[in-house]
């Protein structure tokens, strides 16, 4: 079959960074996106962050699934936040479409949460499981966390991809499994450093006490910068 390389493809939507203040003049919530492949522990990370931060911050969550509300229902079952603070988006397409290319459904969910349960300090936007190219539009989130896990193999940082190389924080999860899957954590750290330069990397084991602390501390620091920044 002949492929016409001159065929024109639909252009991606582009968005500038969202304004830091709402229409009513109030500073809006900090928005942090969490992406990563299927099964790496994104929803578990969101749940752990909610438990760690809910007593000190006013926060809410937007989840993305293709055809279900499974991630939102998990958070509801775990009672990490009141139900009105958890919103589910059904993307109907590849997850990166709704977090990068056409963010309208997610943006509406974020703004609705601020209107109904605000004022909020922080909104977490969790992408559905995607691949190493998944990134968030700056029109949707202010910072991006990308989650991989040791069970996927210690070569994942070497493979790179925009999620690994450009996310504001790379999380390498399930470190407690490393001895059982033959993964060299020091090697993963070196490879991540080579790919990311000075961008930070956090190692987490969410089944352990305070296992999410490296991520929650990073979130607190970003929120402090956000609050102190110019409106």
TrEMBL record:
Q: Which UniProt keywords apply?
A: Chaperone, Cytoplasm, GTP-binding, Nickel insertion, Nucleotide-binding
Pfam families registered for this protein in UniProt: cobW
Residue numbers spanned by region Disordered:
1-20
Residue ranges constituting the CobW/HypB/UreG nucleotide-binding domain according to the UniProt record: 32-201
Enumerate the Gene3D superfamilies for this protein.
Answer: P-loop containing nucleotide triphosphate hydrolases
Stored InterPro entries: CobW/HypB/UreG_nucleotide-bd, P-loop_NTPase, UreG
List, as start-end ranges, the regions of compositional bias called Basic and acidic residues.
1-14
Sites where the protein binds GTP = 36-43
- Cellular localization per UniProt: Cytoplasm
Which domain of life does this protein belong to? Bacteria
User: What job does the chain carry out?
Assistant: Facilitates the functional incorporation of the urease nickel metallocenter. This process requires GTP hydrolysis, probably effectuated by UreG.
Record family assignment: Belongs to the SIMIBI class G3E GTPase family. UreG subfamily.
Identify the HAMAP family for this entry: UreG
Quaternary data: Homodimer. UreD, UreF and UreG form a complex that acts as a GTP-hydrolysis-dependent molecular chaperone, activating the urease apoprotein by helping to assemble the nickel containing metallocenter of UreC. The UreE protein probably delivers the nickel.
| NCBIfam families reported in the protein's UniProt record | ureG
Under which name does UniProt file this protein?
Urease accessory protein UreG
What's the gene?
ureG
């Amino acid at each position: 079959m002949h492929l016409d390389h001159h065929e024109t493809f639909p252009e991606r939507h582009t968005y500038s960074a969202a304004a830091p203040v709402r229409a009513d003049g109030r500073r809006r919530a900090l928005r942090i996106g969490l992406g990563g492949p299927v099964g790496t522990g994104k929803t578990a990370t969101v749940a752990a962050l909610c438990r760690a931060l809910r007593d000190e911050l006013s926060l809410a969550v937007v989840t993305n699934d293709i055809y279900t509300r499974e991630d939102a229902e998990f958070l509801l079952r775990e009672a990490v936040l009141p139900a009105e603070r958890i919103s589910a988006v059904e993307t109907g397409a590849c997850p990166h479409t709704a977090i990068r290319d056409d963010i309208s459904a997610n943006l509406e969910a974020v703004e609705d949460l601020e209107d109904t349960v605000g004022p909020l300090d922080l909104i977490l936007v969790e992408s559905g499981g995607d691949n190493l190219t998944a990134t968030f539009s700056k029109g949707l989130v202010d910072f991006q966390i990308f989650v991989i896990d040791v069970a996927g193999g210690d070569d994942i940082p070497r493979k790179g991809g925009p999620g690994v190389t450009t996310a504001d924080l790379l999380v390498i999860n399930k470190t407690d499994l490393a001895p059982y899957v033959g993964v060299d954590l020091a090697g993963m750290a070196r490879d991540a450093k080579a790919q990311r330069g000075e961008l930070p990397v956090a190692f987490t084991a969410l089944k352990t006490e305070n296992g999410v602390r490296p991520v929650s501390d990073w979130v607190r620091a970003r929120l402090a910068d956000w609050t102190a920044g110019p409106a």
